[in-house]
Amino acid sequence: MAAYIFRRFLLIIPTLLGIMIFNFVLVQFVPGGPVEQVLAKMQGEGDVTSGFAGGSQDVGEETFGSDSDYVGARGLPKEFIEELEKEFGFDKPPLERFLNMMWNYMRLDFGESYFRSISVIDLVLEKMPVSITLGLWSTLIAYVVSIPLGIRKAVRDGSSFDTWTSGVIIVAYAIPGFLFAILLLVLFAGGSYWQIFPLRGLTSDNWENLSLLGKVADYFWHIALPVTASTISAFATLTLLTKNSFLDEIKKQYVMTARAKGLSEKRVLYGHVFRNAMLIVIAGLPGVFIGVFFGGSIIIETIFSLDGLGRLGFEAAVQRDYPVIFGTLFLSSLIGMAIAILSDLMYVFVDPRIDFDKREG
């Protein structure tokens, strides 16, 4: 197992390098870089896409601003634009910029945001509590509800309970998360009906002055709607996965043998079936958390005015804040691959009979 884990860690290096190369090359062909962002703001155009002069300049080109028509359209001297390029590092060839970036990343130096006067690491740490809140609670609630429900549906397969619960979770899965979030706002956050929950933030303004119990209550009061909105679609996949996994195991020979020995149904289900059936469900836990943590929170954070990593990534992409874009991409990719290894370790923890070294051999 140790040799397998070591090989998996070695594979992180070329995989991570490939991800960074692909995205860096892709960015070179996307118009509207940080230089154009600054020029658009200086001209009072606000949105960089409306400030394009011809719209043909690519990010990272050393000829950026060398076209006399482009400079004339901006009314800015060529020397100023060249100085601006130098400040952002675009005076160097793309390959040199990429190598410098990766060298800094290997030393855990992710640079500073172009537009926020703060290091990328500090920015990520500042936004992380919101994303951890959404990811952790959404994953926990999904598992706490879906696993018992899936087991119950497997035991009562084909019953009326199985039928109507399947209908409910399929409807819940079909509802877009952002639409459900808006519905919650309209109903419970003062949109048109009741003002029961707050509209934004994780805590109230007077949170520091509250007692410990008051702080806990205030925290859950604020996260109730966003966590509900981000969890609603997670029940279907996890519940049906649990149900099908248990059904597959229940039909196997060792279950019939255990029943023939006179073991109670509860003992058969939780003493024999549970460990085998839960392999795929438990092993997928890290992946589910990472999916909610990095991917599913952008719209939810925006709707509920939560300042987390999802919203940070979206704003960085719009502003072409490359240190934030590539820094968060590097960190999220690295964490994602580490989580994949953790999933394999969880397989072995749940069932020690699994040996990845023999499987590879």
Automatic annotation (TrEMBL):
Its main location: membrane. InterPro entries: MetI-like, MetI-like_sf. One of its GO terms (cellular component) is plasma membrane. It is found in: Cell inner membrane; Cell membrane. Gene3D superfamilies: MetI-like (1.10.3720.10). GO terms for biological process: microcin transport; transmembrane transport. Keywords: Cell inner membrane, Cell membrane, Membrane, Transmembrane, Transmembrane helix, Transport. It is a multi-pass membrane protein. Coiled coil: none annotated. The keyword Zinc-finger does not apply. The chain crosses the membrane at residues 9-30, 132-151, 163-189, 219-242, 277-304, 324-350. Belongs to the binding-protein-dependent transport system permease family. This is Microcin C ABC transporter permease YejB. It comes from Sagittula salina.
